[in-house]
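Good day; I would like, with your permission, to put a structural problem before you. I would ask you to consider whether the tokens describe a fold that such a sequence might reasonably adopt. The full record is reproduced below for your convenience:
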Amino acid sequence: MVTNRFQDLAFELLCAHNTDLRGMEHPQLIDTRSATVERVSERLIEVRFKPDVKLDAAGIGEMMRAKRALTGTSEADVLTVMPPDLEFEIAVLAMDHHAVNGGCGGSRRLAFVAGSSLDLRLADIYFRYHPRPHDTALFMEEDEARRWLDAAVPSPSLS
């Protein structure tokens, strides 16, 4: 993948917040405290939250900066996978992370895979209160989420 100057600048900003990344070339995978964020193809970024970390607002912000660094000026869909029984601070549900953290750069559609039925219900409530600017779908199975992302995106009507 060709990197551009915007991606390099975004990565430099990310390094300012995460000293473990300093000195690396522009990555395709960024390991944050709460998740791994990987550009798996030109059109897809995968976010996998870690099962052994309590998710908090700072961890979500770090993940969002990593997504921004990997998208740069291009656009990509996002597959987010939560582990079963993820522990999180309840305050994360009350924050509009997209607004607080300046968005996710070129992130487009989001396929969110919940780790449990409770997490699925909480995600549904969260996205109803804090809607994203692009299509968002919630799933219990990763395969189902991938099929949704692989489906053709409808073109806008010309009429």
